[in-house]
Amino acid sequence: MSLSTATYPAELDGQTVVVIGGSSGIGLETARRARLAGADVVLTGRDAARLAQAGKEVHARSTAAFDATDPDDLKRFFGDLADPIDHVMVTAGGSYYASLADMDFAKVRRSLDEHLVLALQVARQSGARVRPGGTLVFITGTGARRPGLGLAIASILAAAFPALTANLALELAPVRVNLIAAGFVDTPLSASLLGDDIEQRRQQLRDTLPIRRVVGPADVAALAVHLMTNTALTGATYDVDGGEQLVSGA
């Protein structure tokens, strides 16, 4: 869908949306939808080449390639932003799946850093830059709802993030803070994690989910933009999983 032919209400007209982890998947799709809603977008990511291409796709105001988990780089990025901003979405980082016996604790620390610690760092660095009524939007999974082998770290993240979100909403008010808890989303990251099993997983979800299709980045992006535009929402967690939690074995 091109930016020139799609029609969306200009609910974000004149606003600036920063997407940390915006070079692909959910982050890129959120940037695309925010642009269609009238926003200027600023994208960040680790891979400079991929980020540059994403910036061209959505006509980003600017891009910045750096590791968001580096506190000095993150502080520098927000300090260099010329104007106040309205919304920040953080999609950086992927979950880590491993049994206790097989855990690589360097990867465990990295996963915790990419989620909980990054959220705290972003909140600290961006809170004073976001206009009143703007929002921080974070992403987590639904792993805490259904424990299983290899899901310990994903469960910790999914259980801790709602509490963190609620506390940040109080500390940063009137800036709003919300959390999206996603089930399986068909992204390049999901494909890389599942490898040759990706199509089998897609078909399983088509067969079992109440919505009879796989959740995609556009579904999450639509929710993210709604959280940005509905100024009554703060401190809450919103599920987008196509009913995955309702189905045994999904």
Describe this structure as you would to a colleague.
The structure is a single chain. It is built from 8 helices and 7 strands, in the order E-H-E-H-E-H-E-H-E-H-E-H-H-H-E. It is α/β, with parallel strands linked by helices. Helix 4 (105-126) links the parallel strand 4 (85-90) and strand 5. Helix 4 runs parallel beside helix 5. The two termini are 30 Å apart. The mean pLDDT is 90.
Question: Which terms summarize this structure?
Answer:
250 residues, alpha/beta, Rossmann fold, 18% strand, globular
Strand order of the largest sheet: 3-2-1-4-5-6-7
Relative helix content = 40-55%
- The CATH topology name reads Rossmann fold
Q: How many DSSP H or I helices?
A: 8
Brief rundown of the structure:
By secondary structure, this protein is α/β, with parallel strands linked by helices. Helix content is 43%, strand content 18%.
Topology (elements, then pairings):
Elements: E1 16-20, H1 25-36, E2 40-45, H2 48-58, E3 62-65, H3 71-80, E4 85-90, H4 105-126, E5 130-141, H5 152-172, E6 176-182, H6 188-194, H7 198-208, H8 217-229, E7 237-240
Parallel strand pairs: 1-2, 1-4, 2-3, 4-5, 5-6, 6-7
Helix pairs in contact: 1-8, 3-4, 4-5
